[in-house]
Amino acid sequence: MDIDSTPVIHTTQLVKNFGRTSALTGLDLSVLPGEVHGFLGPNGAGKSTTLRILLGLIRPTSGTARVFGIDPWAEPVRAHRDVAYVPGDVTLWPNLSGGEVIDLLAGLRGGVNENLRGELIEEFDFDPRKKARTYSKGNRQKAALIAAFSRPARLYLLDEPSSGLDPVMDAVFRRHVRRVTSDGATVLLSSHILTEVEQLCNRVTIIRSGVAVESGTLAELRHLTRTRFRVTSAATPEVLATWRGIHDLRIDGTTIEFDADAADLGSVLDALATAGITGITASPPSLEELFMRHYGLQATGQNIGQASHTGQAL
Amino acid sequence: MRAVFRLALLQERRDGGILAAWILGIAGLGYAAGTAVTTQFGQDNERAALISVAAASPAFLFLRGLPDGISSGAVTFFQSYSFTAVLAGLMSAFLVVRHTRADEDQGRFELVGSTQVTRVTSLYATLLFGICANVALAVAVAAGFIGAGLPVPGSFLAGTAVGAVGLFFMAAAALVAQVMPSARSANGAAAALVGGAYLVRGAGDAVGTADLALLHVTAAWPSLFSPIGWGQRIRPFTEADTLPLLVITAGAVVLAGVAVALRNGRDLGASYIAADDSGAERAGAGLASMLGLAWRLQRGSLAGWCFTAAALGAVAGGLGPVVRDALEGNPSVAELMSRIVPGDAGLVDLFITAMLGIAGILAAAAGIEAVLRLRAEEAEGRAELLLSVPASRFRWLGSTLAVAAITATAVAVAAGASAAVVLALGQEGGSSPGTVFAAALAHIPAALVFPALTVLVFARAPRWSSPVGWSALAAALALGQFGELLGLPTWLQDLSPFRHSSAMPVEAFNPGGTLLMATIAISAAAAASRLIRERDVTV
Prior knowledge:
Radius of gyration of chain B: 24 Å
Distance between the termini of chain B: 38 Å
Strand content of chain A: 25-35%
Oligomer: heterodimer
Shape of chain A: elongated
Radius of gyration of chain A: 23 Å
Number of domains of chain B: 2
Largest sheet of chain B: 2 strands, antiparallel
């Protein structure tokens, strides 16, 4: 067996109940070495709970969780040795300066890398001399990110890490994720921001109500979905109605938009060729659409409220 | 105006049971004291004996206040007023800070401030809420006294005296909340004001003048600088006087007015004592470990506690000889004291022993405050970040516990050292400075039981750590001050750790009790270190 394919993170049938509410209801998650794994789901789906179990902060009700093959609840110190974590809601010590927080956290992990520290502070445009109580949400997040990235780790657990960052800082963040993975590190990135995951992740696990509903590479997931067409054509609605495998048809003058099932792409392209088109764009489904499929279109009765909420968040 | 009412109602709802617990606790204390006096000291001669001993003891005068005749009401008021007034002050101060500076810290004010209200609406609401709370407190205390069988008009006036002191510190805390940069510092400063008012009144009362029958003591001038001292002047069960009530209320109105003006004149989140927002660019060598972090977080508080303890120690060492001289001028006192405590140093030693007992309580409180940082770290989400590094929970808990033990020890050392130094400078006899210093240290093991108990609760049920820790201290304090008065069974009184520490220099050193308390503290801490691994980190 190839040692490199042993998952860095592996959970099986992970269940976590808080009193009567279940946060996780049987989560299977597998993150391979060197990949950036997107962990996608709406608020309350169980992403943060999973990360906390992986850190050994909370104990799973049942099921197993392994990080580098280690049970994080039984041996947290060993499991943490090569882990850097950025929580979703960063709170810092109000009376410590940002620079002190970075040194403290990186120091507790074994010591800060001076070059990286200086580089990160500059790139993130971060003022390390201010007391943490003066920082905005984005600045607190920067402090935690700088602390995480300023010492090399083998696994980065990032819980919605860029939710407080502006687009420029987000680019800096993405650059450093790519840097650490090119050095061979593994990243688990929880998010409900689809573009972030699309730009960064090799593989994605989609979680809903505490269980993984889909897992695979972006290509594998896209395979399951429709392609969006936007064509300029004089074809009449009567003609279009005869085409097989198209959905959500919208006609605005000569501009026609529709989705096509992957299985029917061939016949749709044939039909387009004979319909006399003057312009065409075909786009792969965005993760947003994948997402909506899981939280929107396929929402069961009990999830409708959640689905509409997610729709707004997107 | 409707907004003020609605916000006041909102604050009342958010407080929930906290306020009710305070009010019932304070009224319960008054009821217990009243019952003790009416049942244990039913006869005039019994009360006269109690009062005359108290009038001759500066320690009693310092801790309790002024004896004022032998009626059941007067004796009850003497026994309970100072403590209920301090509690009323703390209740009101914490209430105000909770709804002013703490709300600003947490950003809740921003939400309220964005609605159709002015900058000061919320402060008005808090003051209104505070007034209602103190009216309720006054009625509850009066009901407690009436329930204990004391005269109705006096009971109401006594309740009003307690409520008025609460009102004063409500206004004072509203002012402090405008000035201080954080809820933590505002709470500390407001509590220090309450403590200071108690100490100033204590000093004035301790050097007061007793009449020849030893049934009344008149305060010396320092008590006039304390609202608690003014409240005492109402004398509800003897010669009732409502002028002090007006003085206290007028003081409260002025303070509240200044607070409103200050709030009107500042930005949201700003404070008149500006916090220094700039810090070091790099962490020093000390901030490289869990222990370093725990020390860094506690060192400011530790300095505050030690300063308070040193002030208390200076009072103990400096005031002892003064009160002895004052009392020795009174032939009745000299005669009584020579019967109770043989020897020259008796009075000074009694006073110092009582003061160092307070230092022991202060040490316990400092220890509890220090370990409750763990709870704040966890509840506010910093523990999650801290425990993601390769360091065990044991190290996290142990570091804070070690710093808490250092804090409690430092408080006792500061009180003892300051008492010893002041005593040595005065060269006024009594026990040697070395003995006095040792006497302060003797309270450390019992004081450490409280942080150890608090951390044990934290390890198992974190939400309960603060209520259990502080309640345990309040219970020990009540047992120590009222246990014998109430005639409680010995086993119950023995539950207080302080019963097992040595009340030196009056009593001899008690190695058995010291060892027992040290063992309990260490066992509880060890159990906590194990249990902390067993539960989820709460977020």
